[in-house]
Each structure stands twice: as C-alpha cells, then as structure tokens.
C-alpha cells in the first residue's frame, strides 16, 4: 500500500484526484502501476485501477490476471469493480472507503454480490487513514 500511496501522490501534479493502484503477480512482483489520468488524458475511464490493469495485461500479453492482486488507495467505483471482475484479478486490497461512489461495500458490493460470476477476495481498510488523508488534502485545496 505504501507504493500505491506514492503513486497517488504523483497525480497531484496533473490535477487528478490522488488515487494510486498497482497489480502484483502471484510471485509478489509489481507488473502494473497506475494513477488517475482522467484530467491529464481527458479520459473518463482513466481511473487508477483501469490504468494499472491495462498496464499489467499489456505486460503479460493476457487479458486474464488470474492469481494477481490489485492494491489501490481508494475503494473502487462500479466501473473499476467491473474491470476487476472481468480481468479475473484474484485479490483486491484497498485503503480508504468511498462513501459516495464505492462499489466494494460502501454504496454497492459488485465483487461480492452472490450473483457475480467471478469471485474476488477483498481486503479493505489497509492504511485507511493515510489513504484518506491524501484525498482530504487534495480536496481541501479545491
């Protein structure tokens, strides 16, 4: 999570919401990284999770990330939760809860819905205060 927080800090310069994500393979090697790039690239789908998943899939030359873990500083939204399921990521670890748009337990629970085809292990609240502090700092300046 410390690495994801460092990635999130980099988003400050572009004016993007500071969220960082990384994908780790089953051997513990980081194979994809991403921060929010919505503002930088004028791309509404460029959330940190999507950027990291695309990076990992490109590196592996495979759309399936079975056995991989996604670490992200903020609870994923519905779009990102869907991408996590579609990429077959096995484990999600996130820091801060998103009480407005979170889709892994706050507003919805896309990944653990019993109707979901793909099952993802979820660990929440890792370094939650540190992750939330980044967001508070960013939005206090707005």
Task: Give structural attributes.
alpha/beta, globular, 5 strands, five-stranded mixed sheet, 142 residues, 5 helices
Descriptive report:
With 142 residues, the chain is an alpha/beta fold. 33% of the residues lie in helices and 18% in strands. It has 5 helices and 5 strands; from the N terminus they run αββααβαββα. The protein has helices spanning 2-9, 38-41, 48-60, 78-86, 128-140; strands at residues 20-24, 30-35, 69-74, 91-96, 121-123. The chain has a 5-stranded mixed β-sheet. A hairpin with a 5-residue loop joins strand 1 and strand 2 (30-35). The longest helix has 13 residues, at 48-60. The mean pLDDT is 95.
Low-confidence stretches: none
Order of helices and strands: HEEHHEHEEH
Radius of gyration: 14 Å
Amino-to-carboxy terminus distance: 25 Å
Number of helices: 5
Query: How much is the average pLDDT?
Result: 95
Please report the total strand number as a whole number.
Answer: 5
Q: What strand order characterises the main sheet?
A: 2-1-3-4-5
Helix share bin:
25-40%
Instruction: Tell me the major beta sheet.
Output: 5 strands, mixed
Strand content: 15-25%
Shape: globular
Task: Decide which structural class fits the backbone.
Answer: alpha/beta
